[in-house]
């Protein structure tokens, strides 16, 4: 690769991740634009102040949309995430203040990341890369807060129910999950039936393995 710049060399090594940013802070947008220009594997395709503006001006759906939680147009964060996720975009929500309730809500709406703005740009870049590859990305303090969320729609699972759910939702077969927890497959199935029932009672219908995986991710039980 003689004669290639560092950016071109890295681009040959791994594909670029396209990024759009929605924020009404002009200074922040300018800063992110300048920073992304120096990130070899990240390519900025669009900036906007609202979701409507992005959808009207984005040349093609970006791999990742970095979305400010609270915008000046007073749009609902959950609605914003749903609209973007419906267009096959992975969403990373950023916020100046760690609203725990909002964090849980936007994850359930389809966001894969939730990060406070007090982190450095290297942390933001790592989060963008995680989200682009379908991994959940958020700060440790928010993960702790979510794991202690006691809202009524977060069911109380026994240690055994939680262990089977995590193993099964992580991709294991029922038999493998049962073996991991140290129970018989029939017992593991009963635990999963209880988990489904508890989520249903909490107003979050859960029927399939995919549903279980989504609930486990929403409640930060798996990454």
Automatic annotation (TrEMBL):
The keyword Transcription regulation applies. Coiled coil: none annotated. The keyword Disulfide bond does not apply. It comes from Micromonospora globbae. It comes from the Bacteria. The modification 4-aspartylphosphate is found at residue 68. Residues 18-132 form the Response regulatory domain. This is Response regulator transcription factor. Keywords: DNA-binding, Phosphoprotein, Transcription, Transcription regulation. Pfam families: HTH_23, Response_reg. InterPro entries: CheY-like_superfamily, Sig_transdc_resp-reg_C-effctor, Sig_transdc_resp-reg_receiver, WalR-like, WH-like_DNA-bd_sf.
């Amino acid at each position: 690769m003689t004669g290639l710049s560092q950016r071109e060399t890295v681009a040959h090594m791994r594909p670029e991740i396209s990024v759009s940013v929605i924020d009404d802070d002009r200074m922040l947008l300018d800063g992110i634009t300048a920073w992304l220009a120096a990130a070899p594997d990240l390519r900025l395709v669009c900036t906007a102040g609202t979701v409507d503006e992005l959808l009207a001006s984005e040349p093609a759906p970006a791999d990742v949309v970095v979305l400010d939680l609270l915008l000046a147009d007073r749009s609902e964060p959950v609605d914003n995430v749903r609209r973007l996720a419906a267009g096959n975009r992975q969403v990373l929500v950023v916020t100046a203040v760690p609203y725990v309730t909002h964090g849980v809500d936007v994850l359930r709406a389809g966001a894969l990341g939730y990060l406070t703005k007090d982190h450095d740009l290297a942390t933001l870049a790592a989060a963008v890369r995680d989200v682009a590859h379908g991994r959940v990305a958020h700060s440790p303090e928010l993960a702790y807060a979510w794991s202690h969320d006691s809202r009524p729609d977060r069911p109380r699972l026994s240690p055994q129910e939680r262990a089977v759910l995590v193993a099964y939702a992580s991709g294991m077969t029922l038999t493998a999950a049962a073996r991991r927890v140290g129970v018989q497959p029939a017992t593991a199935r009963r635990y999963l039936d209880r988990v489904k029932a508890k989520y249903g009672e909490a107003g979050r219908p859960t029927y399939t393995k995919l549903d279980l995986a989504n609930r486990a991710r929403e409640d930060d039980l798996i990454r």
